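Hey all, sorry for the wall of text incoming. These are the four entities for the joint prediction.
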Amino acid sequence: MASDKSPALPVKNAGGRRLQNRDRLEADILEQAVRVFAESGYEGASIASIAERAGLSKQNLMYYFPSKQLLYQRVLDDVLDDWLARMESLANEHDEPRDVLRAYIGAKLRFSREQPWASRVYALEVINGAPLYGAQIRDRVVPLLRKDIAVFEEWIAQGRIAAVNATHLMFAIWAMTQSYADFSAQMALVLDRKQLTRKDYEDAEILLTHMVQAAIALPAAAPGA
Amino acid sequence: MASDKSPALPVKNAGGRRLQNRDRLEADILEQAVRVFAESGYEGASIASIAERAGLSKQNLMYYFPSKQLLYQRVLDDVLDDWLARMESLANEHDEPRDVLRAYIGAKLRFSREQPWASRVYALEVINGAPLYGAQIRDRVVPLLRKDIAVFEEWIAQGRIAAVNATHLMFAIWAMTQSYADFSAQMALVLDRKQLTRKDYEDAEILLTHMVQAAIALPAAAPGA
DNA sequence: GTCTATATTAGGATAGAC
DNA sequence: GTCTATCCTAATATAGAC
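and here's what came out:
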């Protein structure tokens, strides 16, 4: 009975895990880390819970990621990499504003649906005032948003869309699409489901596209001009 | 210099504080608690940091709020009380849909501006899946949202607004207004300010009102109908 | 190069002093 | 009724074993 409560199970870790290469193991850790950080926030998340889900000891995890903060920043780096890769193909001079915006909303919504943990980790960091990742946001996200806003303003100057506040329009698009990851729990309660369905995302895309397109629609041109 | 590093300062607490009545002291604690929870999340917030800001020891704080979870729930209760008091005066059968929506957006934006910590604490809870407050959200928030959505649907049935998806329209309004508290850090970075100004909120209100009103505008009626 | 035993601090909570 | 000294667990991180 003395061995009954033996802590930390010196069970030798079965030997199989350690044979997979480092990259693979790091990927496993990061996959669990993004979920745990999304569920509890940076300070609430514990190395132990991440390690447990990834199937190794917390001390072992810290061999691969020497500190909690480094792990967290790596998680956010990956979140941004994924998001930027999806979004940068848009907002070119491109075709019609309507089509560009439809594609933009679709891509952002898809990210919320396919990577809800990533969206939430990012949102948590921003809500908390970006204490640990503000510099990266300033360097990698803000320039992109500014570039998109400049595109809107160009369209306005060319008379292709209505003269709305381009900055706040961008904020609105970001907020509406982001909320389908961040606020999905409340949405599911309103819709009386366990979680949002594919159909819900389709309905969302239709409404959001309609809202943005209605907002930028030029007033019906006076026929005689 | 030996006293230089004395921990915990057994300074007798000055005697003045304890003379104020319990209600006043609880209000002080709650005011600091909402800030700390907003900055660090539930698990990240520590009793010690809340107590320190409120000017008492953590053990003493726990005399007034016996557990962290009770303090947290009390904070969220107060957040909801404040929010509900501001919102329930709206969404009556009321005048024109345009005016009702303008007032609704204005009130929700004002809450984001005046009570950013309250908004953020609530948002953090929802993002984390509402593990500690889901029942209250279901009982107190969801019915209100459903009622508002039903009002939209009534308007649609009466042909007073365009036939949009009322549920997602409500989600969009919530997301856009909420984001001026939750994402203000990122917005400030984009706008290159330390924090959002009154003018920013005015610009926001104009754009959001325009977006929603454009979305619900009836297609230009055929003149001869 | 990979993993584990150990140190150290800070967390929430209780029992007891005033 | 109000506040404080103390307990115990769990957190991150390091030093050292294999």
